[in-house]
Amino acid sequence: MLELRPVKRDDARPFIREHHRHHGVPTGFMWAHGVHDDSGELVGVATVGRPVARELDDGLTCEVTRLCTDGAPNACSMLYGAAMRAAKAKGFRRGLTYILASEDGASLRASGWQPLWTVKGRSWDTKSRRRVDKHPTEDKIAYGWGAWPQLQKMEAAE
């Protein structure tokens, strides 16, 4: 049996550091949710913040910047659902998150999120600023909920 509970930053950060498969702890976030098992053990964390893409940061959009679990069944969909409900209660009009194209998105779809668009994978390494990629460079899929006026404009143009 899983239970949704608030989680403090000081508990969320080490959990993400230990359990996230391909990213570190986000620099900042507005709030976090935790899922605990029936023994009280933290088994999953989601952090929600402002959109990473500046053009989406309109004050009405939030982004799940990290979500990770220890593999507990249904913990991901519980966290995505909680993030959406909390965001709506706070007045956000839409939310998004990104997953790797190799991930299936079942937890997102189960919690009411829809695929929005695909983002071409790329490296942060450039000739003018050399970097070592510490993240996967494969394509990503954006999932979201709420009204997306940008998508309506794109669909009308097609």
Word description of this protein:
The structure is a single chain. The N and C termini lie far apart (47 Å). Helix content is 25%, strand content 30%. The radius of gyration is 16 Å and the shape is globular. It contains four helices and seven strands; from the N terminus they run E-H-E-E-E-H-E-H-E-E-H. Strands 1-2-3-4-5-7-6 form a seven-stranded mixed beta sheet, with helices on both faces. By secondary structure, the chain is of the alpha+beta class.
Overall morphology: globular
Q: N-to-C terminal Cα separation, in Å?
A: 47 Å
**Physical arrangement of strands within the biggest beta sheet:** 1-2-3-4-5-7-6
The total count of strands amounts to 7
Proportion of beta-strand residues: 25-35%
